[in-house]
Design a protein that fits this description.
The protein is of the alpha+beta class and about 250 residues long. The protein is built from six helices and ten strands; from the N terminus they run αααβββββαβββββαα. Helix 1 (about 5-20) crosses helix 5 and helix 2 crosses helix 3.
Length: about 250
């Protein structure tokens, strides 16, 4: 379940207005929300790196490695690569997982990833030449080059996708000129331009729903910078720092 972009934006506005700290426009919010989502997403990889080196509890709902992996599960994808060898990666590709190959009536085999020097040394040697049973690949310039070259189909990629941009979609009330949330597909389709009838499609946060509080705090931190309020910056930064300490204890 994703985090509602409407719920986050309205909560941020409620806190800002309650404290009479100013206002954040939808366009400002969309840019900040996208940045916050990317930062939280990036932190998952570092968290996993630290957690696998720490002693883990065997309690079902307290295993930090399992919890972080569950948060990343939202971004895991499987794609059949097309277009021949070399294979072009999907547009939403972010981090590489495993690459497998399935020949006719066979069990899929994992293709071994190699660095450039090792890859070229192996394909040059007749003793270590790769085969369809023991294939290898080189990943560079957003392409996957598989050897032997006879493998030009039936290749599958497991990968982590990059988060989509967060959008609080809206229309402008013609009378009050207030921003009105619109989560539906716009008509006509396309980005919002002042003075036009087009409005952007709302896109929720793709993060796990347990991240809602973290998202709000981080958005408020940036909001303090936008409206130049040091008290909001200090309060949000203090809360973020405390959350990070608690997570690493």
């Amino acid at each position: 379940m994703a985090v509602s972009v409407d719920a986050v934006y309205k909560t941020v506005l409620l806190i800002l207005n309650k404290e009479q700290r100013g206002y954040m426009t939808p366009n400002e919010f969309n840019k900040i929300a996208t940045q916050v989502q990317r930062e939280i997403f990036e932190r998952y990889f570092e968290d996993l790196n630290q957690q696998v080196r720490s002693i883990q509890t065997d309690m079902e709902y307290s295993d930090r490695v399992a919890i972080t992996d569950e948060k990343l599960e939202i971004f895991k994808r499987v794609s059949s690569l097309t277009g021949g060898n070399p294979f072009t990666l999907p547009n939403d590709f972010y981090r590489l997982g495993s690459v497998t190959y399935s020949s006719a009536n066979s069990i899929p085999v994992e293709i071994q990833k190699l660095g450039r020097a090792e890859y070229y040394n192996i394909i040059k040697s007749p003793l270590t030449s790769p085969s369809e049973s023991y294939p290898i690949y080189l990943y560079e310039e957003n392409n996957i080059i598989v050897s032997p070259s006879s493998i030009d189909q039936n290749v599958e990629l497991q990968y982590i996708k990059k988060p989509s941009d967060v959008v609080w979609g809206y229309a402008i009330d013609p009378v009050s000129e207030a921003f009105l949330w619109d989560g539906s597909t716009p008509t006509p389709a396309g980005p919002y331009y002042p003075g036009s009838s087009a409005n952007p499609v709302s896109v929720d946060f793709e993060l796990h729903n347990s991240e809602q509080t973290e998202i709000i705090i981080n958005v408020l931190l940036y909001a303090g910078i936008v409206i130049r309020d040091p008290q909001i910056i200090q309060a949000a930064a203090s809360k973020i720092q405390q959350e990070e300490v608690n997570e690493k204890q």
